[in-house]
């Protein structure tokens, strides 16, 4: 999808999906007498790799693309040459 290559579009789609899913599930959980946090947890499970990734891996990969490993390692404080693994000398 060409449209999903724009990071801003991906972010807006992610935010909309997470908020809308939580609000819809919030109405169901409120009807069941549960707090909103239960709906937020269930929405996270439904939209995560355990359910959405298993049911529709291409949709999950388009909406929640994996972060590049090289940029995460570059920001890590342990990757500097003078670091001793977080221990003090």
Give me a quick take on this structure.
With 89 residues, the chain is mainly α.
Essential attributes:
5 helices; single chain; about 90 residues; mainly alpha; elongated
Give an overview in words.
- The protein is mainly alpha-helical.
- Helices cover 62% and strands 0% of the residues.
- Helix 1 crosses helix 2 (36-47).
- The model has no long low-confidence stretch (mean pLDDT 78).
What does the secondary structure layout of this molecule look like, with pairings?
Elements lengths: L6 H25 L4 H12 L4 H4 L1 H7 L5 H7 L14
Helix pairs in contact: 1-2
Alpha-carbon distance between the two ends = 51 Å
Number of strands: 0
Q: What percentage of the residues does DSSP assign to strands (E)? A: under 5%
Largest sheet: none
What would the principal axes of the Cα set say about the shape?
A: elongated
- Kindly report the average pLDDT value: 78
- Parts with pLDDT < 50 across at least 5 consecutive residues: none
Number of helices: 5
Compute the CA-based radius of gyration: 18 Å
Helix content: 55-70%
């Amino acid at each position: 999808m060409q449209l999903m290559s724009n990071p801003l579009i991906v972010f807006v789609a992610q935010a909309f999906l997470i908020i809308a899913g939580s609000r819809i599930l919030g109405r169901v959980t409120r009807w069941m007498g549960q707090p909103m946090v239960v709906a937020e947890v269930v929405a996270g499970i439904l939209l995560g790799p355990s359910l959405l990734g298993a049911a529709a891996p291409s949709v999950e990969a388009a909406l929640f693309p994996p972060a590049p490993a090289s940029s995460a390692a570059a920001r890590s404080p342990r990757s500097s040459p003078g670091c001793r693994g977080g221990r003090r000398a």
